User: Fold this.
Amino acid sequence: MSSSLSVTSAPARLLSLDFFRGATVAAMILVNNPGDWGNVYAPLRHAEWNGCTPTDLIFPFFLFIVGVSIAYAMGSKKTDAASHGKTILKALKRALILFGLGLFLSLYPKVFTEPIAAFQGVRIPGVLQRIAVVFLISSAIFLKNSERNIFRILIALLAVYWLLMTFVPVPGVGYANLEKETNLGAWLDRTILTEAHLWKAAKTWDPEGILSTMPAVATGLFGVLVGVYLKRRDVDAATKISWLFCTGTAAVALGLLWDLQFPINKALWTSSFVLYTGGLATIILSFCYWIIDVQQYNRFTKPFVVYGVNAITVFFLSGLIPRTLRMFTVKAADGSEINLQAWLYSGFESWLSPINASLAWAIAFILFWLLILWVMYKKKIIIKV
Assistant:
């Protein structure tokens, strides 16, 4: 996350959290920016529907990290009830900015050439929009509830979502189902947002839709509870690692067990998906915490930390620049006109196989941003949302 959603204001900064955040953002940029969407290695694709690839882990890990960061950044304000209103207003402001940035990415660059058409067909849900909503709701729940109540809310969100998706008949269909276009979430998105404002690749459903925001909040709360436990001063590091590792393993096992009836599915953000990915995130963070913060093996962390402290900035700009490159045209070697991004990518295609050229482009994009972020880190430039 960006600094505004990170642990920079916490009493004890977790270098492992910065590392985990940075690695997650770098992975997000890798999978979002292949040179050619038709040539992508299988692990860098989302699952077709049910199931989970490494790529499907990235977004839930990000929301989990948002939750951990909330526990650190707002922990000192939790006991001061008088400051809750001000803190929630600050969270609301940040959430609105994030939501606005997400909408801008959906509108750009068409908003400058065909503004009316751009707004008529703008996709309202999205990655930054979901981050904004999860951040705001998780922050309010964290400030106003005890750890026990947060856990109860998490379980209730997962249970209610499961009941809605698997037992409530879908209007116009007549029965509950988990198919792409006929599930309850897809029907709700089409009814409220209309097809004009949904994911353009599908138009009839959206992977960041309204109803699936409910279990996405549960992912954020999963991170909140882990963050609260990591902050405890009355528990030694070894005990924390043991409990977190066991908790993560149990969550993964429960997620796999629930998968038998409510399949692990990123697009639907099923309850089993929340447990499975939240468990894996807990295991990974606890391992990073032990290695980086406790054992102090941290020399390898800097490339990822520089990504982590300006995460929202690089995510937003990494989405903006390809769109900008495609606005300009140049002449190809054969005399035809192609957009600037395609022209740059042709240099990779000239000496690599299609699938390796696509991967090399994505890696080059990560290294390009690493250079910029490294300079920003050295100069202590952290862009706050």
